[in-house]
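Fold this sequence, please.
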Amino acid sequence: MSSDDDGSADGCGGPAITVEAAPEIAEVIQKVTADCDNIEVSPTSSAETAEKVVAGEGAPDVWIPDSLLWESRVAQRASTPPRRLITSLATTPIVIASRVKDPPTTWSDLISDRDLIMGDPTTSTAAVLPLVGTGAESDLEKSSQLIVPLAQAQSEGDGEFPTDAKRVELVESDEQALTAVSEQVVLSRAPKLPMTVPAKGTAFLDYPVLLTTSDDRRADVESTTEALTEVLRSPEFKERLTKAKFRSTDGADIKNGVQDITRLALPNANDLGSLLGRWGALGRPGWILTVVDVSGSMDFESGNSTRVELLASSVESSLRLFPDTAGMGIWVFSEKLEGDTDHRELLPTRQLDAEVGSGTQRDAILGEARKLPTMTTGGTGLYDTVLAAYRSAQEDWKPGAFNSVAIMTDGENEDPGSVSKEKLLSELRRLFDPAKPVTIQAFGITKDSDIESLREIAGATGGGAYEVLDPAQMAKYFTLALIGQPA
């Protein structure tokens, strides 16, 4: 393959392929592949393409998101995980853009600023950074106190978040406004807009190239994807990236950019699922199906109590913290708890102020929680229960709420007749609906739990799994689970 004088590729033989790229880099790729009639490049938000890859429908042959974070976010949920072709095309740091005289010097100060124009952290990597940075600067309790008013303020709006480019435009026209956005977007759209980075640092976007076509098509398009990667490694393309205000892959300083940046790592997929669940829960009422292990091992002593007694008391103490608009249901499970079924529904998911008998759903849940120590029996029927609970939560999906399944167990699957783990994971990936998301938050109580399997199970739905080594801390963990804030 050769290139003409302006860097456009020539002679890109092979079958036609589709490429979806983050909008800010898509224009550069379109120019460098202008002569490749068989390579169609579309500017598409990373979040939009991620949904297609997870669903396995409408996904492009090649995907260039703004961050490797997207690769890890979809890998556990996609039936065909992406294959990395290039780790990074370019980088750009996430900065604070503002015209204020004394801009914030920490991420915590930024999210506390009433003039912050927030992006959508579920779709914008730049908008995630203030939440990540705040967590790095503060303990869980303090960072939650800071994030709560921001999340709730966003939930009271119209639900629409301005794009990265729109936020730069808004900040440029308002001397009081601030936002978190990439350096490249600022330099390419408002080069005179001041930029700063907190002293503890920031993260960089890195633009990987991922193969996302179906398994049966990958060999057929290999010659074209190789031609694409060749042009994306060319000097001409790198020159175009520089002109478009991107940094090189090593993040070296550039003219008019922020200098001497300390680099922070973005969270892994598991931690990000927890963080975004936390954000979603704080801004929306929780709608949670809580699934409690009542197998025989939950009777094991822990201090002056048993594991199940500690869990029961944690339900009681934690539930008082939640508003009446939140919803909760409760199941228990062991092995063959009712005939051949491993689980039993104690209460369906209902709003906490719903009338139940002579009281409310909240009263009913507290009553059932106090009975948990009397229910322990048998082995652990984990896999069938998880699948049934997830299907139930999807059927009860609540619009405008943070929908989740909270699984709490101290063991591993002990039902030989249950669905296999591989089948369970496959089915969870198939069932996950980005338009009506339900996440699993799984908690392994003590080292007896199968925490690795729990991580796989939760990851298949974009949730998180966490090891609770001290059952006496279950009150804290249960609270965090209900509002999407695992420690």
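The chain has three domains: 2-91+206-233, 92-204, 270-482. Residues 1-10 have pLDDT under 50 and may be disordered.
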